[in-house]
Specification:
- The protein is of the alpha/beta class.
- About 45% of the residues lie in helices and about 20% in strands.
- It has a seven-stranded mixed sheet with strand order 10-13-14-9-8-15-16. It has a six-stranded mixed sheet with strand order 5-4-3-6-7-18, with helices on both faces. The chain has a three-stranded antiparallel sheet with strand order 1-2-20.
- Helix 3 packs parallel to helix 4.
- The radius of gyration is 25 Å and the shape is globular.
């Protein structure tokens, strides 16, 4: 890390601390104004953002709008509709011993926050937490993902053109920039990325006792039971798995399919891949590319494992890997021990639901779990037997698009959840206050204690 980079970052953080200390962000009117400015700026720069996503990941306009830009419009709209209600003090019950008084929870902003975005959804996963941070009254430094250079440039231009850097500012660059930021004291850190970097972030935060949210990943299982609507399941799984060429943190990472339907289901998956991407996915306008050469090479290594029953083609020049299905795998093979984060779908089988549950529970708690079954009792059994961040019954991925649901991991897949009100709460400190009447007193709490012991026992029994 150079001294210049460290000094530059320290200057940005100091400016934000001064802006927050001015008290301006405590005004709900200013927060609303800033959210509206953000939405208007995204509208203005929308074409540049979508073009950046195409150049970085070959995302189609549809995927870029639905999963990135449009997603943020919905998040902002939902927040604008409700954040003033979320910010209101909330009255709660008061124990008899402390009456007459009233107890209130106040939401106050945490202060200056750091949001570190990932490269796979370089717009949505960076800006979505920022919406909550603004609504809750914070200032924010946004660390742009270095790997998604074109999208990051579009975001940097948008923020610089629209906001006072004391309120919102972006920082670009690689490891040196990240290291300089993590050396600074923030009031909160929000990180989206992999577990290994998450550990680095948490270690750096611990030096300042800074609270963190870690949105990580892991191997999200998808279980297909023998009573599932198989054609519908195949359609939904192919859509969710190959969204963004598999580079989605909540994509199905592997399939567990009941042995009674495994052979048929594989054929249905093949049919659906062809229906979605045509005879040659490489020429499909709806199929993405791997972010860089390093990740492409890593994914190509997985193609040597098991037996390829669909796909398996790759092109290093264009960072293309076709939608691929793998079978005949060991549960200990690398493709089953590491998060894939690409368009490769391992398929294993099980004979009863208890076996599938045990398989999932023997591994780290996943960010998402998907279960396809028509039986509600079996659905309840799976939901009650497995710990995971969030998920779907008879679908994949779509749970993260509902702002009324919390989105986040558990255990190794992350800590903390956000979206909608959960984002507002995440970026707020909940301050509990008792308002006591000055006109009435319960004298038995005061010394000498001995004469009042019987009254204490009556009240606190």
């Amino acid at each position: 890390m150079t001294e210049n980079k460290s000094a530059e970052v320290e200057h940005l953080v100091l400016a934000q601390r001064e802006y927050f200390a001015s008290g301006r962000t405590r005004d709900l009117g200013l927060r609303r104004e800033q959210l509206l400015k953000l939405k208007a700026a995204i509208k203005k720069h929308e074409a540049k953002i979508i073009e950046g996503l195409r150049r970085d990941l070959n995302k189609s306009e549809f995927e870029s709008y639905a999963a990135e830009v449009g997603f943020i419009y919905e998040e902002i709209n939902h927040t604008l509709k409700s954040f003033e209600k979320w910010a209101k003090p909330v009255g709660v019950a008061t124990p008899l011993l402390h009456k007459p008084s009233r107890s209130v929870i106040y939401s106050e902003p945490r202060g200056n926050v750091l949001v570190i975005g990932p490269w796979n959804y370089p717009f949505q996963l960076l800006i979505s937490p920022v919406v909550g941070a603004i609504a809750a009254g914070n200032t924010a430094v946004l660390k742009l993902p270095d790997a998604a250079a074109h999208t990051s440039k579009a975001v940097a231009d948008l923020i610089a053109e629209t906001f006072d850097p004391g309120f919102l500012v972006t920082v670009s660059g690689g490891r040196a920039s990240a290291t300089a930021l993590l050396a600074c004291k923030f009031d909160y850190i929000f990180f989206t990325g992999g577990p290994e970097v998450g550990k680095v972030v948490m270690t750096a935060a611990a030096k300042h006792l800074t609270p963190v949210t870690l949105e990580l990943g892991g191997k999200s299982p998808c279980i297909v039971h023998d009573d599932a609507a198989l054609e519908q399941a195949a359609k939904r799984i192919v859509w969710g798995k190959f969204l963004n060429a598999g580079q989605t943190c909540v994509a199905p990472d592997y399939l567990l399919v009941h042995n009674n339907v495994k052979a048929r289901f594989i054929e249905l998956l093949k049919v659906e891949i062809k229906s979605a991407f045509g005879e040659s996915p490489k020429t499909s306008p709806d199929y993405g590319r791997i972010i860089n050469d390093k990740h492409h090479e890593r994914l190509v290594g997985y193609l040597k494992e098991g037996r390829i029953v669909a796909g398996g083609e790759s092109d290093s020049k264009t960072r293309y890997i076709s939608p691929t299905l793998l079978t005949d795998l060991s549960s200990e093979s690398p493709v089953m021990s590491e998060e894939i984060f690409g368009p490769i779908l391992p398929i294993l089988e099980y004979s009863d639901i208890g076996e599938a549950i045990a398989f999932v529970n023997e591994r780290a708690k996943p960010l998402a779990l998907y279960f396809f079954s028509s039986d509600k009792a079996t659905q309840r059994h799976v939901l009650g037997s497995v710990s995971f961040g969030g998920g779907c019954i008879n679908d994949v991925v779509v749970h993260l698009a509902n702002p009324h649901l919390p989105f986040g991991g558990v255990g190794q897949s992350g800590m903390g959840s956000y979206h909608g009100k959960f984002s507002f709460d995440l970026f707020s400190h909940k301050k509990g206050v008792v308002h006591k009447s000055p006109h009435f007193e319960l004298k038995f709490r005061y010394r000498p204690y001995a004469p009042n012991m019987k009254w204490l026992r009556r009240v606190m029994k």
